[in-house]
Design brief:
Number of helices: 6
Radius of gyration: 18 Å
Number of strands: 11
Helix content: 10-25%
Low-confidence stretches: 5-11, 254-258
Distance between the termini: 30 Å
Shape: globular
Largest sheet: 9 strands, mixed
Strand content: 15-25%
């Protein structure tokens, strides 16, 4: 197991649960641990029978190019949280970002050399009290600084288990708020999610990951895409490092003197 670089681990601590450790996957076995957790959360728990497989692993062609951030319970040694990160040089090697499967990123051309893609965020159900996501956010901020990147890009999903009413209501609320990206950072979905008309008093349940992005200063980059494989609506999000909220990063990350 490879901990984050010395300059990262020296400044990241977990005051709330010292049993949790933050690291980066460094072996095939560790990546498979990550893929096994993702399978349990995304595929098994989501009831996605079309994506089930005998190996019980959630994996794709991007995994081999990405760095995999891990939060582990040092008592049980179980991987309890993860984030997949694609840095600019790895994105150039793959030729695209994962989110380009769903969105046209033409307007982001000038940011590519300073942008990390984050995806496949996943936390074990027994560890969703907040400490794991805090460590993951601290790791994200440290990773951006280490690779001299100013932006984080990625998708946040909203389940369509209710037929799409909540996804429509959430987007319609957020698209009229300060969370919408400036016009120069808008992206067009390849397969737009068919929006439903919702009343102003419609009940809205914002998923925890999306809520965390928004609290940290992320922008929503336009209309959601429809992901039929994972049965969800995906919002493209852009988070400038300068906006990263202190509740997630600075609480665990001590800034270095310039």
């Amino acid at each position: 197991m490879q901990l984050l670089d010395t300059q990262d681990t020296a400044s990241i601590s977990n005051q709330h649960n010292p049993r949790l450790t933050l690291s980066m996957a460094s072996t095939i076995e560790e990546v498979e641990e990550v893929q096994r957790l993702r399978y349990k959360i995304f595929i098994e728990a989501g009831g996605l029978s079309s994506l089930m497989n005998a190996e019980r692993l959630d994996r794709d062609e991007f995994d081999r190019y990405c760095d995999h951030l891990i939060v582990r319970d040092s008592g049980s040694l179980q991987v309890v949280g993860t984030y997949r990160l694609l840095k600019p040089e790895a994105a150039r090697e793959t030729g695209r970002l994962y989110c380009e499967n769903e969105f046209d990123l033409l307007r982001f051309a000038n940011l590519r050399g300073r942008m990390v893609e984050a995806g496949r965020a996943c936390i074990h159900p027994d560890y969703r009290s907040g400490a794991v996501i805090m460590l993951l956010w601290a790791g994200l901020a440290s990773y951006l600084r280490r690779h001299q990147c100013d932006y984080l890009i990625g998708c946040a999903s909203i389940s369509l288990a209710d037929g799409g009413a909540n996804a429509s209501a959430v987007y319609q609320q957020l698209a009229t708020s300060q969370h919408l990206a400036p016009a120069e950072y808008r992206a067009t979905p390849h397969l737009p999610f068919p929006m439903q008309q919702c009343s102003s008093d419609a009940r809205r349940a914002i998923p925890p990951l999306l809520k965390g992005y928004l609290r940290s200063g992320a922008w929503i980059c336009g209309d959601p895409a429809w992901d039929p494989d994972f049965h969800c609506a995906d919002l493209l999000l852009l988070l400038p490092l300068a906006n990263l909220d202190s509740r997630y990063a600075k609480r665990y990350l001590t800034e270095k003197a310039a």
